[in-house]
Amino acid sequence: MRIAVLHGPNLNLLGRREPEVYGRQTLDDVNAALGVLARELGVQAEAYQSNHEGQLVDFVQQAAGRVDGFVVNAGAYTHTSIALADALAGVARPYVEVHVSNVFARERFRHRSYLAGNAVGVVSGFGLDSYRLGFRALVEHLQGQEEKQEATEVLSPKS
Ligand code: DQA
After folding, report:
1. Mean of the pLDDT values across residues 107-124?
2. What's the domain count of the chain?
3. SS3 labels along 81-117
4. CATH number for the domain including 56?
5. Domain containing 30: what range?
6. Catalytic residue among 7, 48, 95, 99
7. Which of 3, 4, 54, 111 has its CA 20 to 30 A from that of 47?
8. pLDDT > 90 fraction of the chain, expressed in percent and rounded
9. Whether the CB of 25 sits within 6 Å of ligand 1
10. Ligand 1 within 6 A of 2 CB?
11. Per-residue model confidence (pLDDT) at position 112
12. pTM score, two decimals?
């Protein structure tokens, strides 16, 4: 199983950017923690960050062929990007939306997400742990799907 972790705009500034909101951990810390977790769970992981909407869309389209699902922190594009929402819906891979901060405790414009409606779930407000929780939840969701598929095949074999 392979998971892609997608980081949107300004997340390259984690650790330096508004530390009272986003904490002191850097994007490298996040990716390193997810690498450790991936090893623990016996799955593969890759991470990608871009400040550009079109590049995030391109990444989703290209990665979809090699990954089983996405962990997505789209940053501000969460609240604005129909293009990214369409890309994620279009490639039909399960994804979990994550946020470092609790977006629902912040400005009203952060309460709307174009991604949440099609997500397996949303984790928001736990700092770096939002990524860890979201990653683990996605892996368990995908494993659950695999088990269901296997049970269906046992109950109704193809030939
Ligand atoms: C964020 C929340 C967004 O509203 C904001 O634009 C970000 C980061 C978070 O992780 O808390 O860039 O996605």
Report:
1. 98
2. 1
3. CHHHHHHHHHHCCCEEEEECCCHHHCCHHHCCCCCHH
4. 3.40.50.9100
5. 2-155
6. 99
7. 111
8. 89
9. no
10. no
11. 98
12. 0.94
